[in-house]
Design goal:
It is a single chain. By secondary structure, this protein is α+β, with helices and mostly antiparallel strands. It has two domains: 3-225, Jelly Rolls (Sandwich), CATH 2.60.120.10; 229-273 and 311-434, no CATH class. 34% of the residues lie in helices and 20% in strands. The protein contains 15 helices and 18 strands. The protein has helices spanning 9-19, 21-30, 74-80, 120-125, 154-164, 177-185, 215-228, 230-233, 235-248, 255-268, 286-295, 342-361, 371-378, 400-403, 405-413, and strands spanning 3-7, 38-44, 48-51, 54-58, 64-66, 89-93, 95-101, 106-113, 117-118, 136-140, 145-147, 195-201, 274-277, 306-310, 320-323, 379-385, 395-396, 429-434. Strand 4 (54-58) and strand 5 (64-66) form a beta hairpin. Helix 1 runs antiparallel to helix 2 (21-30).
């Protein structure tokens, strides 16, 4: 069950201090007036907090409705309607995902966990913003999520349909998994309770742009937005360097694959999310969903590994993945009719990426003083496919679990089960990780 409740700063500060201690310190110094309230929003897994640009809240009857619905008090509308989209918020518990949708795919933008701050750009932009409109949405928990082993068997899915009153057919693609997970997670018989929790700042907090006493508050928001936008601000450098590399390396790539290579650099930079195997319940009620597929669906022999979004960091020993079966590029040029198979695509991807990296490392592109040089020099891109590559350039997915310490840990927790090597997600995927120092 979800909810929305108004609090004073004093009432909510301890929750915020746990995830944003420095921000809490700055606000404590301000001793904000009582009308500077916050709203604590709780959202069950899978519901849309922002639905095609429309901010959604729970009313007094615990029904999720648009902020401008007649059942929402006028004060709440005034307090939280100041951006024309979602108000500025801090994630206090679990996670949210921002994403775009087209007719047949979901395009993730960012994945926020506790301490993450959302709608900063909109607050800073004032009256003229590109952030408003129906283009984007925000989900409670991971929207871009899938089970690695196949869950398409009609017999197993029929068992789920009966127990959890599912009105959805068995999934035909990885993109279908989220809707099924959401229905299961919100059924009364699902055992694991899960919700995301956000602190929404009311309008009064942003009436002090010219107030010197509030300069540290405003500066922190600006600095956080600046840090979060590092990749997007410098994307034209990536694009220009890639164009130079194409010319210098005599590349004439398929536009679809060229877009994918640029996106792989964005994932390596941490600016765009990749995929990671779930090791906790931050992205979704993972433990409960795995139990459902083991006990109710009767998943055979394979470990119920669930993939969700994660922003790569060189500070972690945690590879992230890009899948040709579940593409997440924000730019998607038409696929060339020349492509014959995923093996052909992934081999060409590797050739393009290796050429671009070589041009960067050898100084051809003049980016040695930029983070792009470190990306090329310090990161490893491993390409996997189920078929044997006669040229020995593409690795067999049977070795993928050996490469990833996170997968090894998960498999150890399901010791009687094996790695789902025939998963469509990993049949044509790229693993991004720090290079070994050995």
């Amino acid at each position: 069950m979800g909810g929305l409740k108004e609090y004073s700063w004093a009432e909510l500060r301890d929750k915020i201090k746990l995830v944003q201690p420095y921000f809490c310190e700055i606000i404590d110094e301000l001793s904000p007036p009582r009308d500077h309230t916050l709203y604590l929003g709780q959202y069950p897994y899978g519901v849309l907090i922002l639905n095609a640009g429309i901010f959604q809240v729970f009313n007094s009857k615990n029904v999720l409705v648009p902020l401008n619905d007649i059942t929402i008090d006028s004060k709440v509308k005034t307090d939280l309607g100041y951006t024309g989209t979602i108000p500025m918020a801090i994630v206090l518990q679990n996670s949210i995902e921002t994403f775009f949708t087209t007719d047949n795919r979901t395009i993730p933008s960012s994945f926020y966990t506790s301490g993450g701050m959302v709608s900063l750009w909109r607050v800073l932009e004032g009256d003229c913003s590109y952030q408003e409109g129906a283009l984007w949405s925000i989900s409670s928990g991971a929207r871009t999520i899938c089970m690695l082993p196949k869950i398409t068997e009609n017999t197993g899915h029929e068992l789920l349909r009966r127990k959890y009153n599912l009105r959805l057919p068995a999934p035909t693609s990885l993109n279908d998994h989220w809707a099924i997970f959401t229905r299961i997670a919100n059924h009364k018989d699902f055992t694991q309770k899960w919700h995301s929790e956000l602190a929404f700042f009311s309008k009064e907090w942003f009436q002090h742009k010219g107030d010197r006493d509030w300069s540290r508050f405003n500066e922190l928001i600006l600095n956080q937005a600046w840090a979060d936008s590092t990749f997007k601000r410098n994307q034209f450098i990536f694009d220009f360097a890639f164009s130079l590399a194409q010319k210098s390396g005599n590349l004439k790539p398929n536009p679809y694959l060229a877009d994918t290579v640029k996106h792989l650099f964005g994932i390596g930079a941490g600016g765009m999310p990749g995929f990671t195997p779930a090791i906790d319940n931050i992205a979704a009620p993972i433990d409960g969903l795995q139990k459902v597929y083991l006990d109710d669906y009767k998943l055979r022999k394979y470990a119920p590994i669930i993939m969700h979004l994660h922003h790569f960091s060189s500070a972690e020993d945690r590879p992230v993945y890009y899948s040709l079966t579940m593409p997440t590029t924000t730019v998607f040029s038409p696929r060339s009719s020349r492509a014959l198979s995923k093996m052909v695509d992934i081999r060409e991807l590797k050739h393009i990426l290796d050429t671009v990296i070589s041009e960067i490392v050898h100084g051809t592109l003049m980016v040695e003083k930029t983070p792009l040089f470190a990306l090329a020099k310090d990161l490893s891109y491993q390409f996997y496919h189920s078929e044997k590559d006669p040229h020995n350039e593409i690795l067999s997915i049977t070795h993928l679990a050996e490469y990833d310490p996170v997968l090894q840990k998960i498999l150890a927790s399901f010791e009687d089960r094996v790695f789902p090597e025939f998963s469509s997600f990993i049949n044509g995927c790229i693993a991004i990780a720090k290079k070994s120092k050995d």
